[in-house]
Amino acid sequence: MKITQLSVVVPVRNEQDNVACLIKEIDLALNAITHEIIYVNDGSTDATYARLKELQSQFKQLRIVSHVKSCGQSTAVRTGVKVAQYDWVATLDGDGQNDPADIPKLMAAIADGVELAGGNRRASRRDTWVKRMSSVVANTVRSKMLNDDTPDTGCGLKLFKREAFLDLPYFDHMHRFLPALIKRRGGKIVSVPVSHRNREHGKSNYGTFDRLMVGVVDLFGVAWLQRRAKVPVIKEEG
């Protein structure tokens, strides 16, 4: 299956020093296809919005959507997907650690029936030891509770069908459970090895302990949803 049009959604909060380089890389990676770059400015208090406005004159495909107050990463992603023009959407983190050059790899992995291709950073992860270990623990528990063998569900680099995403139940922090939620509705998932880079500027807006605590609560919520999900096998007669 060939994807010829793509919307790229990048949620950002206080990433003023990362936007210019990342936009250039996204545009270069996708110069062979029709694309749009949607930056969702999630209540930034630095010069992120001003930098984005400056870049719009250089990158005509750059769109900016802003939250007056920060609503979190999941809400920012959903805002971007809702305004996206194209049937397929890629997401990546705004800190520059995801490499846009990997987006075509995800596109190449899409086959009939596949609704989500997710990046797998395990071989190249550039996070602190504490963050890596917390991810290992979280992925192990999630795999057992949700019967989801996706190796790196926390990777921000993902490619999915817009319609499938908008059909999912919405809740805060849902972006961490996209593979399990897609499977819940009967969709297929593929994982693709991708690179992971050091953060060059700024600092993370999400603490490891905070992510772990909300993750535990959300995990039980997703498990509850799964137990009540019924995916029918449909046959039309006549």
Give an account of the 3D structure:
- By secondary structure, the chain is of the alpha/beta class.
- It has one domain: Spore Coat Polysaccharide Biosynthesis Protein SpsA, Chain A.
- The chain is 37% helix and 18% strand.
- It contains eight helices and seven strands; from the N terminus they run βαβαβαβαβαβααβα.
- The protein has a seven-stranded mixed beta sheet with strand order 3-2-1-4-6-5-7, with helices on both faces.
- α5 (129-146) runs parallel beside α8 (208-227).
- It is globular, with a radius of gyration of 17 Å.
- The mean pLDDT is 83.
Architecture blueprint of SSEs:
Blueprint: E1 5-12, H1 19-29, E2 34-42, H2 48-56, E3 62-67, H3 73-83, E4 88-91, H4 103-109, E5 114-120, H5 129-146, E6 158-161, H6 162-166, H7 178-184, E7 188-193, H8 208-227
Parallel strand pairs: 1-2, 1-4, 2-3, 5-7
Antiparallel strand pairs: 4-6, 5-6
How would you summarize what this structure contains?
With 238 residues, the protein is α/β, with parallel strands linked by helices. It has eight helices and seven strands.
Features:
238 residues, alpha/beta, Spore Coat Polysaccharide Biosynthesis Protein SpsA, Chain A, seven-stranded mixed beta sheet, 8 helices, 37% helix, 18% strand, globular
